Amino acid sequence: MSRLNTVNTRPSEGNRAGGRRLQAVLLDMDGTLIESEHLWNEAEAELVADLGGVWTEEDHIKNVGNAAEPVGRYIIGLTGVDLTPRQVADRLYARFMSKLKAGTELRPGAKELVTLLSESGVPVSLVTSTERELVATAIGGIGLESFDDSVAGDEVAANKPHPDPYLEAARRLGVDPRRCVAVEDSVVGVTSAADAGCATVAIPNHVEIPPREGVVFRESLVGIDLDWLESLVADR
To answer: Are 112 and 164 found together in one domain?
Structure first.
């Protein structure tokens, strides 16, 4: 399993970003950088069918952005199966991994944004509810090595919607979360990022995200530049 622990090992590029108030950009993965929610939906539906239940689009929408064990608890409630949430999560992950091997599409503008941040020396971390064993495969279209660090769902005491994943990402980068921009696509993720104090960009994908103070909405990652990201933390 790949984990990048060195923060911004590009000193010349880091110096170019040194005058910015923007200290880091923290990016969600599923639904934000990669188009994987349909794969989760397929894996969930197949697993629930095997357990004797029926998985609907409404069930999927209720679980977008959640970690595997909360989804496991939901599936147990739906099917009444005599398994633990961890056992259900493991079965779900096995199905999802098999689907990942065929590859995933990147969301529009995803690779361009990560490349821009990398080349500009702005630290960038992947902050995902997905557990570590799947991260490198899931983000393969961009490459985990393109990020200064990554925080997986099984590396924090409390996963999204709790603020812990974003607070941990900021702590590991040595930055102030209030001077970070987080990008999310779900209610669960936006809650996590905003509660951590990050300037939060919401790019709704499969679910509607209600307005919230301090959260900026965009249609996609396309066209995001450093000046715009800097403007989100300029008054912090």
So the answer is: yes
CB atoms within 10 A of CB 108: 15
CB 185 within 8 A of CB 28: yes
CA gap 131, 134 in Å, rounded: 6
Same domain, 194 and 128: yes
**How big is the chain, counted in residues?**
236
Q: What angle do CA 104, 105, 107 make, to 5 degrees?
A: 130
pTM across the whole model: 0.83
Q: What count of Cα atoms within 13 Å lies in the side-chain half-sphere of residue 229?
A: 29
Neighbours of 35 (CB within 10 A): 18
Residues 25/229, Cβ–Cβ less than 8 Å: yes
pLDDT, tens only, 190-209 = 999 999 999 999 999 888 99
Q: What is the pLDDT of residues 155-170, one digit of tens each?
A: 999 999 999 999 999 9
- The verdict on 178 and 137 lying in the same domain is yes
Ranges assigned E (strand) in the chain: 24-27, 34-35, 105-106, 124-127, 149-151, 180-184, 199-202, 215-217
